[in-house]
Amino acid sequence: MGKKIKKTRNKPSRYIFLLFFIIIALFSLIILKPFLTPLAGGLIIGYIFYPLYNKINKALKKENASALLTTILVLFMISVPFFIFANALTGEASAFYIHSKQMLATGTIISTDYGCTDGFICGLNHKFASVMQNENTKSYIDGILIKISTMIFNYSSSLILSIPKIMLNVLIMLFVVFFTFKDGKKAIGFFFSIVPLKDHFKKDLLKQTQDVIFATIYGNIIVAVIEGVLATIAFIAVGMASPLLFGVIVVIVSIIPMIGASIIWLPASLYYILTGISNSNSVVLWKGLGLCLYGFFVISSLSTFLRPKIIGHKSNLHPVLILFGVLGGIATFGVVGMVLGPLILSILFSFIKVYERDKNEIIS
Fold first, then answer.
1. Which of 136, 155, 236, 335 has its CA 20 to 30 A from that of 250?
2. Which domain holds residue 236?
């Protein structure tokens, strides 16, 4: 009887503890909110390069020195290619914008020989040109181009003004990367030690979470990046304008399910095929056919063969989770949300799977 009274008396203090814990957790989240993007970015980078840290740590056998050395290596491995790539991408984006503006102004879709009047492609070009010469169409397109120019200018200006903030975010990210290497396993162990579940539930939950993180980062993000690299190589080989820009677009659309890289390489290959036919240019025609075959058998087939090999029997993510994860993640966290969005939803899904399987034992 006395034990029951004691248990009842302890309940209010338990609820008060939980209430204060939730309040403090919410305030902590508000404090950390401005830094969620660099925090998440640091954790993701730390996870990707953790095997490299392990190898260095086995050689040096000093956690601090290994974590510092790996962080410096990661900084150079990411920053140097990024600045080179960003510089080239900026130039390509500007050139593509100017080229698109000229193409819309002249009303030419496909470049044809001078005096081309017969045939489907020539007729299509002439129809498009006549539509583009219409004053209402010109006014509408000029308005769109002015909006795009203003948006680019405003973005560039805000980017320059945000340099101190960007530098701070980079420093925070590197700080998080360092401690992910050094204390990542300890932090995960501590978190699961305080989770109020039985040991076998904790092990299952940890396994499910590790699987979905691995599947998200390596099975989707890394495969999409490889597809983008292969697409860029193909675009450069056929002499396509702005190959880096379209390579980046391939990476983005490859992450989003039910779209895929074909939305970029297929129209590009058709453009070359139609241009080759209209100009009786066999070289351009073969470029289009080659890009089409390469796109089908190499770029788009990569995910079919490579993703299962990378993931193996680990948890595969439902396309709906990836779709909403990518779109919602970008809207909430920016670029890093491409990874973070699907990751958060997939971890939630792993929690639900463990709960669904063992709910009777967990609740009791």
1. 155
2. 197-364
Within the chain, where are the H helices? 2-32, 36-48, 50-60, 63-106, 120-132, 135-161, 163-194, 199-214, 223-237, 243-255, 262-278, 282-294, 300-311, 319-333, 337-363
Q: Which residue has the higher pLDDT, 130 or 39?
A: 39
Last residue of a domain, one of 172, 194, 216: 194
Residues 356 and 329 in one domain: yes
- Count of CB atoms within 10 A of residue 288's CB? 20
Token pair recorded at residue 135: 């004053």
- Report pLDDT digits (tens) over 223-243: 888 899 999 999 999 988 788
Asked if the model's pLDDT at residue 45 lies above 70, the reply is: yes
Indicate whether 110 pLDDT > 60.
Answer: no
Does residue 280 sit in helix, strand or coil?
coil
Same domain for 225 and 179, yes or no, is no
Cα-to-chain-centroid distance, residue 109: 31
CA distance 191 to 211: 18
Digit-coded pLDDT (tens) for 306-330? 777 776 656 566 677 777 877 788 7
Q: Are 212 and 345 in contact (CB under 8 A)?
A: no
DSSP 82-148: HHHHHHHHHHHHHHHHHHHHHHHHHT-SS---TT--SSHHHHHHHHHHHHHTSHHHHHHHHHHHHHH
Last residue in a domain, options 134, 162, 194: 194
- Please report, for residues 125, 144, 251, 338, the alpha-carbon distance to residue 100 in angstroms, rounded to integers and kept in the order given: 15, 12, 22, 28
